[in-house]
Amino acid sequence: MAYKTPLTLFKAVSLCCLLSSQVACGGSSDEQTAQAPVTAEPITGAVPSDTTWQSSHQTVAFLNRATFGAKPSDLELYQSTTASEWFETQLNAPPSYLMASIEQYVRPEDYNEPSLIYMASTSFAFWQHAINAEDQLRQRVAFALSEILVTSTNSGDELAEHAEAMASYQDILIKHAFGNYRDLLRDVTYSPTMGFYLTYLGNEKGDEATGKVPDENYARELLQLFTIGVEKLNLDGSQMRDNNGQPIETYTNNDIQGLARVFTGLNLNEEALEESVAKAFSVPMWVFDEDHSLKEKTFLGQTIAANTFTEESVEQALDTIFNHPNVAPFISRQLIQRLVSSNPSPAYIKRVASSFETGYFELPNETRVGAGKRGDLAATTAAILFDQEALNPTGEQRGKIREPIIRFTQWARAFNAANIWPEFILPLWDTSSATRLGQHPYRSPSVFNFFRPGYAAPGSKTAQNNLVAPELQITNATSIPGYINFMTYFISGAQQNVDIEEVEEAIESEGLDLDPDDAPNSFLVEYSNALNYADNAQALVDYLNLLLSANQLSEQTNDRIVQTISSLSSPEQRVKVAILMVMTSADYLVQQ
């Protein structure tokens, strides 16, 4: 049964949560009651012809879901290409990997005593790629995957001290963003970054004499968070229920114990370790069969025979998990939430999950996307972005709160930020504080991500209407003014007001090959397009409304901004205040 709450209410209750600070950690809304089990069927284009982009605002809306933000040059993109052609071009764009980007910050001594700038270099690389990379769709999908298959430098351990660890993990997600989810699971499993984060790196077989048992951390999160979830689902994401109307668990603790035996015998690559710990964290883990449990491993109704060694055990286990019917709806729903809508309808989830199952999707121009193999992420992404609920987000249960990270990158792209040199801007070294963005790439507080997919603020109207708003879990009375102040800093150009002498001293102390004279030129934005409209307050707001929010501003918000900037005499001040008011309005914060 579909929810009956329109987007206007979702926007209103979201703003209510923002302003009344009714946000707390934990809590989730119940899933919908399942109907009869649903099976997969081929899904074709969601629109009859390739008319996805019929105007500038439709182009901006599409790109704001598919990239880290539309650019001014994209406003008329619909006149020169189609959405299908753009999507195909993005699929064929060469991947931009982060590992090469961090090399400029590495000194030999960092491997013994890591410098602060070296440890922050993975963050620098993220900002550079999110804002400037040509393979925007791949980068955006990889970021969405990072919020499902979570690793984090938040705990201040070796993952933070060795920049290569997180960069190599990010590159795994970038590599497989248009690949197959099964291949992604394998590379994630052998990643020393994941091995260290979820404590199975160096995991050894049990010892009955001492009572020692294999570490269960990865086995549990692999099932709970990365693949199938805790309750059986139909293809449309709804819960299956037993004869008593109760949800059906997907696994038990016995399954976790059996699966934990699989992930024994994996450790750092010894050859790479001879070079450096950082190098060992940048290549797949080695197999050490002598540490692997040779006992029978039973889980999810399947058994891996006794005396099966590490590599074969891992392959059989991942095959079993990947082929579980929950994977398609469980992963599809979360990817929809990261890109398009917090509350996709069961029909939307089913359509996307069907493309995950069949491994293909037909674009509106009749081009087939996907290799026809279950788990194809290119087909799944196409199904998400070209679905009718994404392209025509009017009516009930549409939209999502824009993540703070995405808001910032959108600003940088919307105004053609040049010289993306985050090393010169201290606020970008760590934006996780609620006084900044309240979120930093690859630095979530736990394996449960920055926010849970089922989160609804307790006592809020969102929860009362059986809706979820994941991003509101990191929204509170501190983060609201924190975001406003953070954006004010950049929109106003304060990042250019640096003390060259202080920068030079810092560079010398770090022994870096950087030019301090570059500091005032970092993140230079171009407001010339907006300044062309500055003499006409309404025209300026119309331009920013299109570029930043795809014409989502309400009449009330529009009038309030026009009235405010009309009282300002400086054209540049008008532009900056108007941008800030648009990007802090409730109309903008809810992406439709």
Automatic annotation (TrEMBL):
Whether Ribosomal protein counts among this entry's keywords is: no
Q: Which UniProt keywords apply?
A: Signal
Alphabetized Pfam families for the sequence: DUF1800 (PF08811)
Keyword Transport applies: no
From what superkingdom does this record's organism come?
A: Bacteria
Signal peptide per UniProt: 1-26
InterPro entries xref list:
DUF1800
PANTHER family according to UniProt:
BLL7424 PROTEIN (PTHR43737), DUF1501 DOMAIN-CONTAINING PROTEIN (PTHR43737:SF1)
Put simply, this protein is called DUF1800 domain-containing protein
Give the source species: Pseudoalteromonas piratica
